[in-house]
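In response to the reviewer comment on reproducibility (Comment 2.3), we provide here a single inverse folding case reported in full, input and output, so that an independent group could reproduce the run without further information from us. The structure tokens appear first.
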């Protein structure tokens, strides 16, 4: 799917680098002084692209796609794809942290709702699981398609807990004691 006006994704990305965000000035490649700022924004775009690719691969795996199928799309071998994207970073265990799972897109919101009532909030996600942190308050969880800026949810008290492209997982502190 191409962006609006028939632009390619590359065109849209280039325009985003030059235009910046709502609080950033538009950069002009004809102004030599803007070139370092363009490099800085392009570096941010590259890092964001790598993170989106990692999240997309994780979502594809969670949907049941094999390493070989993902590798074919990326023009990599199954083994190279698994080596590049298969290693997950584990966080230190402790009584205030746990993994919730296995969960799927069909049952995860129900499980997150139950955990939230008991004072657990999501702070990370992996394939078929959520990293949870124990707190002194109840939490509301929400999953939305990442179709608008993440910060736009802040006005309603939401905080982005996890960016798991194509989803954002939001949490909101309910300011009430957890259920027992």
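Designed residues, in position order:
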């Amino acid at each position: 799917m191409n962006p609006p006006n028939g632009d390619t994704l590359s065109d849209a990305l280039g325009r985003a680098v030059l235009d910046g965000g709502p609080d950033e000035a538009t950069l002009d490649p004809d102004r030599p002084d803007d070139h370092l700022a363009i490099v800085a924004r392009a570096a941010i775009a590259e890092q964001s692209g790598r993170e989106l690719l990692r999240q997309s691969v994780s979502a594809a795996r969670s949907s049941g796609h094999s390493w070989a199928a993902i590798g074919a799309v990326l023009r990599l071998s199954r083994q190279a794809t698994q080596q590049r994207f298969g290693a997950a970073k584990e966080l230190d265990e402790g009584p205030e942290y746990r993994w919730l799972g296995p969960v799927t897109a069909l049952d995860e919101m129900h499980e997150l709702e139950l955990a939230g009532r008991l004072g657990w909030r999501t702070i990370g996600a992996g394939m078929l699981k959520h990293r949870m942190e124990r707190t002194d308050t109840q939490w509301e969880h929400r999953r939305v398609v990442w179709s608008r800026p993440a910060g736009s949810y802040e006005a309603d008290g939401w905080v982005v807990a996890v960016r798991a492209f194509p989803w954002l997982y939001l949490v909101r502190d309910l300011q009430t004691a957890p259920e027992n």
